[in-house]
Each structure stands twice: as structure tokens, then as C-alpha cells.
Amino acid sequence: MTDARLLGADEATFIAAVRSGDTAQFALITERHRRELQVHCYRMLANYEDAQDLTQETFLRAWNKRESFKGHAALRTWLYRIATNACLDFLEKRNDRTPVPSELPDPGSEVPYLQPYPDWMLPEDPQESVVARETIELAFIVAVQHLPPRQRAAFILRDVLGWPASKAADALELTVASVTSALQRARVTMREQLPDRRLDWRSPATHELSDDERSVVKSYIDAHERNDLDGLMALLRDDLRFTMLPEPGTLIVTAKDAVDGWVSSGLFQRGYDDWRCITTTVNRMPAAVLYLRTPDDPEYRLFNIAVLHIVDGKIAELTGFDVTDKPWLSLSATL
């Protein structure tokens, strides 16, 4: 085994814990990496609950394979390799983890298994590449889902995390040439899926919401609570892209059609017109958590999370997540 004196502190302590069978020390060391590994699994799977499960699976596999860690690579790298392959194994067994064509003539597609990622679960002191806003926003996560699993892994390891080709090839048990080819194909797909977005994921990135975004989400909440359809409509871009998840077939690409659909389904009508909302952030994006009080109910109950992509003071994309009777992301079930 590699001489512990030549290793980093984490690697040396990890090897010592393996040699002594110290499960508590093993858990303490690996737990430091939980949040960034969970973000990695989320990018691979686009589902917060699955990412939690696969992170736990990563730690289980790490324990079972603990004797294989010789310190030739950083412990963090070794754990990422296990997490990546755990996600690939998961995707191989799940045919429902690919985008499906929308019912509209628009060539877009839907990702019904998409879930938002709560900002409070992001690493507290992250490396820039791990949680750069441009690589955690919903549009990016959806775009990545259009990549075949191994292309997806190669793209995330190389272009998001900035791993060298040889390191990514080792993690994926592929040749450098295969990883390079997969990455080139992945970049083409990402350009098609995100034509108006920055595609250099390793350049300086933003983290914080702008004043413009904070103002729009405040106005969105105010319009909701006042049942002000005109005010709500004024916040939406004409070419709004609206999706309600997890239900398939809800992709709508104009503001008018979206608002007409909300009204025809009963929203803002009697029984669905008493709202209270709070602001939050998910995927480093502004979001409104909507609570509804129905007649004869003394409490406002968790109803929907609306995640907003704001461009030039208007809502360009609105992704709604149905959370009725599903207390989630540590949100209160009632107000």
C-alpha cells in the first residue's frame, strides 16, 4: 500500500481507518464530500430524490470497495468515480430516465422526472465548478438529460468539473480517445439545447440573484396573492415557456396560452383564489412557493413551487412543480 507519509491528510486518514476497520472515522471522512457528490449525481439524474439515494449508494460502494483505495488518486476523485458509475448503473436500468417529445409541434421535449435542487443543500464552501449557477440552473440540467449516459458523464467530468481527459477516461474505464469523442458529440448537443446560453462552463460564473430577479419574483408573488391576472400577464414574455411537472403533456410556449390554461383549470376562480406565497431559491434560481387556502380550511397548504428564469425583467421560463400534500425541500406544509 502507498506510504501514508506521501499522501494528503484525508487519504492518509482514510487508509488508516480502512486498516483499523474504524467505521466511524470512515464515515466522518467520506461525509465531508456528501454535498458535492449529491450535486454531481443530480446533474447526472435531474432528480433530487434519486441524487440523495445514489449518494448513499456511493458511500455504501465505497465501504465495500475500501480495500481497493491505495492512495494513487485523491479520495475525492475516487469517490467521484464511484458516484459516476453508480449513476450509470442506475440509468442503464431505468428506461424512464430520458426526455420525451412534447405534444406540441415545437421540437422541444419534456423531462417529467425533473425535480428542483434546494440551494441550502449546495456545498457551503464550494469549488467554483461544482455549483456555478450556469451549471445548476434547470435549463442546463434539462439539456444534459439529452445526452446518452456516458456522453453525459464525460461532459460533466470534463467540461463542468474540469477534469483532464486521462482522469475522466480512468473514471469511466474508457480510452482517452473515446472520452474525447464522447465530449465532442456532447458539446454539439449542448449547443443545440442551449443556443442562447454561455457554453464555456469553466469561465467565471455567477452565484447570486440580480436585483432585477428579486424584483420580478416579488411582483409575481404580489400578483398571485391579489389574483391580478393582468399584473401576472405583464410579467411574462410573450414567448413564455411553461411546464408543470411531473405531469407530461403540459409544455406551453406562449404566455397567453399559459394564462388561459390556468384559468380554465380553475386557478384564480372561487376556491382557488386565496393565496399566500414565500420566496426561495432552487438551482440558484428565484422561485415562489405557493400556498392555497380552500373554503372551510383554516390553513394555507403547500400547493406548488414556481421556478422562474428571468430575462431583461420578464419571466422567460416558468417551471411549476406540483407539491400538493408533499412536504418537500424542508418547506412547511402549511402557513
From TrEMBL:
Record key words, sorted: DNA-binding, Sigma factor, Transcription, Transcription regulation
Sequence ranges assigned to domain RNA polymerase sigma factor 70 region 4 type in this UniProt record: 140-189
MF GO annotations: DNA binding; sigma factor activity
Domain of life per record: Bacteria
Database matches in InterPro entries: NTF2-like_dom_sf, RNA_pol_sigma-70-like, RNA_pol_sigma-70_dom, RNA_pol_sigma-G_actinobac, RNA_pol_sigma70_ECF_CS, RNA_pol_sigma70_r2, RNA_pol_sigma70_r4_t2, RNA_pol_sigma_r2
Biological process (GO), any one: response to stress
SUPFAM superfamilies tied to this protein: NTF2-like, Sigma2 domain of RNA polymerase sigma factors, Sigma3 and sigma4 domains of RNA polymerase sigma factors
Sequence ranges assigned to domain RNA polymerase sigma-70 region in this UniProt record: 31-95
Subunit structure: Interacts transiently with the RNA polymerase catalytic core formed by RpoA, RpoB, RpoC and RpoZ (2 alpha, 1 beta, 1 beta' and 1 omega subunit) to form the RNA polymerase holoenzyme that can initiate transcription.
Sequence similarity: Belongs to the sigma-70 factor family. ECF subfamily.
Record's protein name: RNA polymerase sigma factor
Species in which this protein is naturally found: Nonomuraea terrae
Lineage: Bacteria, Bacillati, Actinomycetota, Actinomycetes, Streptosporangiales
